[in-house]
Each structure stands twice: as structure tokens, then as C-alpha cells.
Amino acid sequence: MNIFKATRPLNLFILLFAQFLTAYFLGFGNTIKEVFDLTHLSIYLTTLLCAVFGYLFNDIMDIKADAINRPAKNFLSEPKIRKTALIIAIIAAVLAISFAFIKSYKLGVLITLIITLLFSYSTLLKRLPLIGNLIIALLGAFSIFILLAFDSNLNFELTLIFSINAFAIHFIREIIKDTEDMDGDEAAGYRTFPLLVGIKATRTLLVILLFLYILVFTTFLRLMMMRYFSSPLSYVFLSYNIACIGLPLFHLLSRLQLAGDKGDFKYLSKVALYIMITGTLSMLFF
User: Fold this and answer.
1) 103-140 b/e with 16+ CB inside 10 Å = b?
2) In terms of residue numbers, what domain contains 172?
3) Taking a C-beta distance cutoff of 8 angstroms, is the pair 3, 84 a contact?
4) Rounded CA gap, 170 and 190, in Å?
5) What φ, ψ does residue 8 adopt, rounded to 5°?
6) What is the pLDDT of residue 81?
7) How does 268-285 read in b/e, with b if 16+ C-beta sit within 10 Å?
8) Cβ-count burial of 72 within 10 angstroms (0-12 exposed, 13-18 middle, 19+ buried)?
9) pLDDT by residue (tens digit) across 116-174?
10) Of 55, 85, 104, 269, which has fewest CB within 10 angstroms of its CB?
11) Is the CB of residue 207 less than 8 Å from the CB of residue 253?
12) pLDDT value of residue 1
């Protein structure tokens, strides 16, 4: 049961749901049958297996830091459980690459690249300032963008917009999580951005990133309203984005400027996750 929780079932569901919404609602002309054909199912399955590998392998490599940051995960310090988790992670990676190459060479290469990046992230890159955050943000965006390589019905502009949004909020959330995890990361010898520059400078960076993201968000919102909606649906779309994405973004910005301890940043991480989910759900309008 503990190993199952370590795979982050909620995150796996969000990943699959986001890919389904992308294929169906941004794939103009796609039917339910088409978004569950062999090609789409192969993408869903292989990216899901990549995520399982990434979560388990990362937790195994993070045992020392998580003993402080997330004591509930300390079960992986037990050799038998850790060995089981490692075996499951390896099997997930092998199956992901195998299934991908069976479907197509192109998918196989992309999935191999994802597995390689996840391995590099867990063993080295996450310990470095901002680089690991960028990798996770890119992979979060790529989980949506990868569908463009196999689905000609997908609207390129909309898929790109949602991929950029996914990258931005993932990047911000990863830095917030690094700030939340400073105690354990310091004990483990990591050199994350918050540990190098401190909480105050990290807050400044996050405020700048949030301002930039709000600017990008409002630009994309205006573009989508002009190109894809007419009254009265445009006002419904605008209202949803203001209430479910815009206001939480400003709430995140205001709370961020007062954040000072682990509990504050844990809360901010949850707000960022909420924005990630509501942003994905906005695909339902298309």
C-alpha cells in the first residue's frame, strides 16, 4: 500500500486526464473512439509508466532528504521495501520503452528520452539550482505536447498554449516545493536555489515569475477569446478563467510575499496544484 501511494495515484490520474482532454477537446474532429485508438492508448500507457518510474526512483534516491521533509515516506528506508520499489520502477521503465518501440520508433525514442531525463533528474539534476525544476516543468509540458507528434487533428496553437501554461505553473510549483523542502535538502547535501540564495531571494524570483506568468496568461486568454469564442460563451470562458485561474494566481502572489516557513510553502504548493488542475479543465470549453 505504501509503494502504491509512492506512485502518486492522484498525479497519475491528472496526467491521464490532461492527455485525454487534450486529445478530445483540442483534437477538433476527434471522436471518443479515436482518442482511445491504439496510438493514443500507447501514449497514455507509456507516459503513465514513465511517471511511475519517475516517482518511485526519485523517492528511492531521496530517502535521506525525505526522512526530514516527509517522514511518512520513511518506509523506503527499509531494505526489502526499497528493493521492491526499485524493481517496480525498473519494470515500469522497461515496459514503457518496450511498448513504445513496439508501437513506433518515434514514440520509442521519445519515451527513452523521457526515462533518461527522469533518471538524470533523480540522480543529479534535482540537486542543482533551477536545472531540475526546469526539467520537471519541461516534462510536464511535454506530456501534453507529445500528442502533437501523433495526432494530426490536434490544434497546434491551442496545444502549444496549454503546454506553455503547464510548463510555467510546473516551474513555479517546483521552486515552491524546493523552498518547502529546504531542511531535508540541506541535510542531504543538495544545492537547490532556495538553499543557495535563501528564502527572501527565492520569494523575489517567484514573484517575478508569477508576474510574467500572469502577463502570459492574460495574453493567451485574450487570444483564445478572440479566435475561438463568440458571445455569450466568450463571457462564460472569461468568467471561468478569472474565477478559477486568475484569482487563485493573485492569491498565490499575495500569500507568497508573506511566506516564511515550511507550512506556508506547503500551502502555496497546493494552490499551484489547484491552478494546474483548473487550467487543464479549461480545455472543456473547446
Assistant:
1) beeebbebbbebbebbbebbeebbbbbbebbbbbbbbb
2) 2-285
3) yes
4) 20
5) 55, 65
6) 87
7) bbebbbbbbbebbebbee
8) exposed
9) 999 999 999 999 999 999 999 999 999 999 999 999 999 999 999 999 999 999 999 99
10) 104
11) yes
12) 54
